[in-house]
Amino acid sequence: MAAAPDSYKNRQFLAVIGDEDTVTGMLLAGIGHVTPAPNSSQNFLIVDAKTETANIEKTFDEFTGRKDVGILLINQHIAEKIRYKLDTFTAAFPAVLEIPSKDHPYDPEKDTVLKRVRRLFGE
């Protein structure tokens, strides 16, 4: 069954939670969006060694709660820090996709989406 048009018709942005190289690449590709002040918000978060896990969790909650975000990209090594949030997120929108980074290869065994697909097929 297809999702109702109201649930996806205004979802026009990608959001990114990633390391500096990933976010920079995505911004150069044109996905950046910053709303004007006084309630300024952006659709990306650069995570480094100093970024606290609580800040990553808060940003994940903000991005998944926004009605204008259709896809949330997150580096897999960052997703590991908030794995419980990804495992419990069940909404269809935004789609949460784990991606590799330059310094951390992709491991399909850790990917939440692939785990769900395997369960669906009884593996």
From TrEMBL:
A single GO cellular-component term on record: fungal-type vacuole membrane
Protein's membrane topology: Peripheral membrane protein
Keywords on record: Hydrogen ion transport, Ion transport, Membrane, Transport, Vacuole
Bilayer-crossing regions: none
Superkingdom in the source lineage: Eukaryota
SUPFAM superfamilies: AtpF-like
Pfam families per the UniProt record, alphabetical: ATP-synt_F
Compartments in which it is found: Vacuole membrane
Keyword Cell membrane listed: no
Residue ranges of coiled coil: none
InterPro entries: ATPase_V1-cplx_f_g_su, ATPase_V1-cplx_fsu_euk, ATPase_V1_fsu_sf
GO MF: proton-transporting ATPase activity, rotational mechanism
NCBIfam families, alphabetized: V_ATP_synt_F (TIGR01101)
Assembly behavior: V-ATPase is a heteromultimeric enzyme made up of two complexes: the ATP-hydrolytic V1 complex and the proton translocation V0 complex.
UniProt function note: Subunit of the V1 complex of vacuolar(H+)-ATPase (V-ATPase), a multisubunit enzyme composed of a peripheral complex (V1) that hydrolyzes ATP and a membrane integral complex (V0) that translocates protons. V-ATPase is responsible for acidifying and maintaining the pH of intracellular compartments.
Family membership: Belongs to the V-ATPase F subunit family.
Protein's name according to its UniProt entry: V-type proton ATPase subunit F
Organism: Ascodesmis nigricans
